[in-house]
Automatic annotation (TrEMBL):
Gene: coaBC
SUPFAM superfamilies: CoaB-like, Homo-oligomeric flavin-containing Cys decarboxylases, HFCD
Protein name per its UniProtKB record: Coenzyme A biosynthesis bifunctional protein CoaBC
Pfam families: DFP (PF04127), Flavoprotein (PF02441)
Function: Catalyzes two steps in the biosynthesis of coenzyme A. In the first step cysteine is conjugated to 4'-phosphopantothenate to form 4-phosphopantothenoylcysteine, in the latter compound is decarboxylated to form 4'-phosphopantotheine. Catalyzes two sequential steps in the biosynthesis of coenzyme A. In the first step cysteine is conjugated to 4'-phosphopantothenate to form 4-phosphopantothenoylcysteine. In the second step the latter compound is decarboxylated to form 4'-phosphopantotheine.
Organism for this UniProt entry: Stenotrophomonas humi
InterPro entries linked to this entry: CoaB-like_sf, CoaBC, DNA/pantothenate-metab_flavo_C, Flavin_trans-like, Flavoprotein
Domain of life: Bacteria
Domain DNA/pantothenate metabolism flavoprotein C-terminal: 184-394
Molecular function per GO: FMN binding; metal ion binding; phosphopantothenate--cysteine ligase activity; phosphopantothenoylcysteine decarboxylase activity
Organism taxonomic ancestry: Bacteria, Pseudomonadati, Pseudomonadota, Gammaproteobacteria, Lysobacterales
NCBIfam families: coaBC_dfp
Pathway per the UniProt entry: Cofactor biosynthesis; coenzyme A biosynthesis; CoA from (R)-pantothenate: step 2/5; Cofactor biosynthesis; coenzyme A biosynthesis; CoA from (R)-pantothenate: step 3/5
Amino acid sequence: MLLCVGGGIAAYKSLELVRRLRDAGAFVQVAMTAGAQQFVTPLSFQALSGNPTRTTLWDSSAEQAMGHIELARWADRIVVAPATADLLARLAHGNADDLVTTLCLATTAPLTVCPAMNHRMWQHPATQANITLLRERGAQVIGPEDGPLAEGESGPGRLTEAPAIVAALAANLAPQAPAKPGRLNGMRVLISAGPTYEDLDPVRYVGNRSSGKMGYALAAAAARQGAQVVLVSGPVQLPTPAGVQRIDVRSAAQMREAVLSALPADIYIGAAAVADYTPRQVSPQKLKKTAGTQTLTLELVRTADILAEVAVQEQALKLVVGFAAETHDVEKYARGKLADKHLDLIIANQVGIAGNGFESDQNAAIAYWDGGQREFPGTAKTQLAEQLLDLIAERLDA
């Protein structure tokens, strides 16, 4: 594993990442940008990795044998952590103006980037365009996380913690299930997954507990079955499934725009937990407590119904599949949505039960369609995804 450390305050966390990678059995070498060396010394990484830390293209002893090329060839995977906004931009545009960017350009090894920066920098359209470009080229993106930042603000921009990075790398390196030929071969499948966050002010938002795991499992399974998969994802901490084009969004409005822009498709699976309401106004400054006031009134307005809007599109969709997470009267509400939204199929599950639904790796579901239903007992979401796709393939011919 070649760990490339970028020049941000989160560089100190990469010391822990080296230790965790070695504990997991990886042989680690480290390369640092000039900026990274302003936060952490090369000697610290050398002590933890057990190998000399590379810092420059102009090391005469290492470059006698074109050492940077040898290092690029040596790596089984390159991990960039932290990946600053500047470093992401240089990687996306093929720059090779220092050791780290040259290594990333000269290697054929898979690339993983772990972004860390101010939340406004992360949300800037330029950064999002660079991330999208890297993903389209096959890079794995881990994070960033939402939370307190070094400058005292809060938002999406924290470097993912070392244990979670190692777990995501392990999942990405795990042998993939073999492709499963079937009726999804060559089809374009559009999937929405995860929550949406509706901002109240620069610090707070209205959200929900969706982890995105079900939607991501469906995307991974559809790709293995030969489909061309586009995944529109709300804010989650999950690696992009192999062979899947991922589009990151934050709000319901952004998800609607991304989904409609990704059409036409053969199949749309609306697995996202899209907010039903969004604040009428977003405060440009943090909302403050007022002395003597015990309540706060927020005016919320309905968001667009993405699933219903997709179902009436004139593009030649073969199947529109919705999800319904309910706390009670599951069949009543699910069949109501099936009819009201003009869906072909709806997958319903009961949330609020320990071990199932939101945030869990397990789920149970009942699928409903006009004149029929099928129950899926509790199992791993990865297994349930395969079962649901088998049903979706069946309903294509119904």
